Amino acid sequence: MPREENKMGIVPVKKLIISMSLPMMVSMLVQALYNVVDSIYVARLSEAALTSVTMAFPLQNLMIALGSGTGVGINALLSRSLGEKKFDRSDAAANNGLLLALLNYAVFLVIGLFAAGAFIRTQTQVPELIANGTTYLRIVCCMSLGLFYQMTFERLLQSTGRTLYSMISQTVGAIINIILDPIMIFGLLGCPKLGVAGAAYATVIGQTCAAFIGLYCNLKKNTDIRFSVKSMFTPDASVIKDIYLVGVPSILMMSIGSAMTYLMNLILKTFSETAIAVFGVYFKLQSFFFMPIFGLNNGLIPVLAYNYGARKKERIQEALSFSMVLAVSIMTVGTLVFELFPAVLLKLFDASPDMLAIGIPALRIICLSFPIAGACIVMGSIFQAFSQSIYSLIISVGRQLVVLIPVAYFLSKLGNVNLVWIAFPIAEGISLLLSLYFFRKLYRRTVETL
Description:
By secondary structure, the chain is mostly helical. The chain has one domain. The chain is about 85% helix and about 0% strand. It has helices at about 15-45, 45-85, 85-115, 115-120, 125-140, 145-160, 165-185, 195-220, 230, 235-270, 275-310, 315-340, 340-345, 355-365, 370-385, 390-410, 415-420, 425-445. Helix 2 packs antiparallel against helix 10 and helix 2 runs parallel beside helix 11 (about 275-310). The longest helix is centred in the N-terminal third of the chain and has 37 residues, at about 45-85. About 55% of the residues are buried.
């Protein structure tokens, strides 16, 4: 039976961007909420418990980078193939993506079993932090199969424009996590008190539930993809190559974030464990504004990829300009919230006087870079959609490793932890310059020639 034109090629662009991005923005907000709630409950155990989870975050983020980056590659290939009416290729992208999710899990199963403790010990020698951090990290790595399939199934739904079902999957998983957090951390309703381990178990259970919902939605609702167990276990080298041409730069780009947080933890450790806890709290709080922008980005990428494959220049231009205004507006609101209410935000985490003294200047300084970051994320969407993620990788390396960490290290030597945070707006300014350069270069070579 012939397949009809996908809505990404015919629905009015603004309506399309809103309809595709809004469900993902909502689900990302819920995702941000559960990250914050998770840390709020952990902080009520102790500041040490919060610090140990913060120390586990770089490796946990690396796991997300591998799954999400692979999903970006699947998304770009699948959406472009649908736009070009190459349906065998789009089906192959989906089925090979399911195999890659299984292989990604195997990598982190090994890491969780054999490297979790060693990783935490590189950041601290405090026994309590080592014990809590190792426990948390081992659970989230060894039970990460749900995470990898959740991300893959959601990307398949996003690639074909079915973002409502992607939202349902993410939202239900996050709500389950939020409900289980206090029960498993504090031992409510007959559950044993598990502490930091309870937060980890709540996380992986929520991810697994989301994966099953994503599987159901794809099998029952995603008519643009034909799934096959045989195809899943028959790797197509050319398809996997195309997935990772886009995916590897995205994986590396997100992995750089893991390296940055790890190195920043080491820099902040020279001041105090409280400074590390503040950095962890910042990352949780900023997700309320960054996650919706990433949701917008996830909705924008398949629209750009599809219309590039369909050679519809005007739709690409309108999608980019509308998304840019929306992203910068949201991030400006984020800057205002952080500037006006930093103490209120920190007290959500039972902040001590020391944490407030470090955290209030931190939030007010770092948030100055938010609108710039929003613009850079939207410009980066065209790199992913047009299989040029190498540009995003260069920008990320430049911002986080070439500028942010060296500048933060230099400022830390001045002996004032508040100066370290200035490195963030400096790095974001460099990111804007690089983003503008590569965006103009790619835009002229692709969109203007359509």
